[in-house]
Amino acid sequence: MESMIRVNLGSLSYNIAIGAGHLDRLGELITPLNLGKKILLVSNPEIFNYYGERARISLEQAGFDVAICTLPAGEEYKTPETLQMIYDAALKHRLERSSTMVALGGGIIGDMTGFAAATWLRGINVVQVPTSLLAMVDASIGGKTGVNHPHGKNLIGAFHQPKLVLIDPDVLPTLPEREFRAGMAEVIKYGVIWDEELFVKLEQSPGLDQIQSLDSGLLQEILTRSCQSKADVVSQDEKESGLRAILNYGHTIGHAVESLTGYTVVIHGEAVGIGMVAASQIAVKLGLWDQDSDQRQFALIEKAGLPTQLPPGLNLDDILDSLQTDKKVKAGKVRFVLPTRIGEAIVTDQVTSDVIRQVLENFPVRCLA
Hints:
Layout: E1 2-7, E2 14-19, H1 26-30, E3 38-43, H2 45-61, E4 65-70, H3 80-92, E5 100-105, H4 107-119, E6 125-130, H5 133-139, E7 144-149, E8 152-159, E9 164-167, H6 177-193, H7 196-204, H8 216-236, H9 251-260, H10 268-285, H11 291-303, H12 316-323, E10 336-341, E11 344-348, H13 353-361
Parallel strand pairs: 2-9, 3-4, 3-5, 5-6, 6-9
Antiparallel strand pairs: 1-2, 7-8, 10-11
């Protein structure tokens, strides 16, 4: 089963290739793209241990000159200091403007490699080969790249579209269950903001918290529909001047939770799950959508095994302060993505601090009706 999705961005257009066994076809699939002969393959030690040699062999068999750069794993290493390791490897292996960086890993590897490619020699090619569910359906698509600042997530970054996104669902069984659940948060997001049919299919699935709960057909459909949703939005708004902002559903409070806990207590998808619960409740309070839709979303988030409460020890004033440093702040106002019905959402700056506080204060006692 294979899918090919086109991200239509004029001269920057590219394909998302989804199919079992695609990792071993990496060299074959990028050969027609004229990406130069020198490739820097960037990964982390664990992912490289699983899949690095297969990627390297595929590239070398296709005639590419491959160098390897492995970065330490973890959000706490998504920093300018770690980025320097990619630049050093690019210099050592004499990457040229025609050369290519290949990101083999999750969203962190993809974001950092993409940013390094955007800035090395003022911009070279990058190919994304995501190995986590979250990276497959979200981080690898759309050209957002960057690293974290101590006071905010991805505050240092650039838009830099890949030449190809290659997705092989066969790599997902080695993904830790926690990471799989985190990726499912982004899948649920697409169902809420864009694709009602996807939302219903998730409701019908017997489980969402581990890959064994999904048959191969449903997994392929989840990947395809999620990637198509992202491609649809990005094709209409590459640099988030309008519509693309809806992809930040759950991310406003989610990013605040991540940064205030030092990126070590909750991982990104878990924070997005918490953020979606909060945004849904805000939407109910503002009369934008109904309690039934809120409960349906809450049930999916729980079904995926994601947290629905704030981590202990967080101060509400700190969360409100952190929102002011969010990238989505415009003219001093925090912009929230809020659902209006399943499959549709809006962006608004009309959410007051009082409403946010009321919702977060009620978080610990929320339960299904």
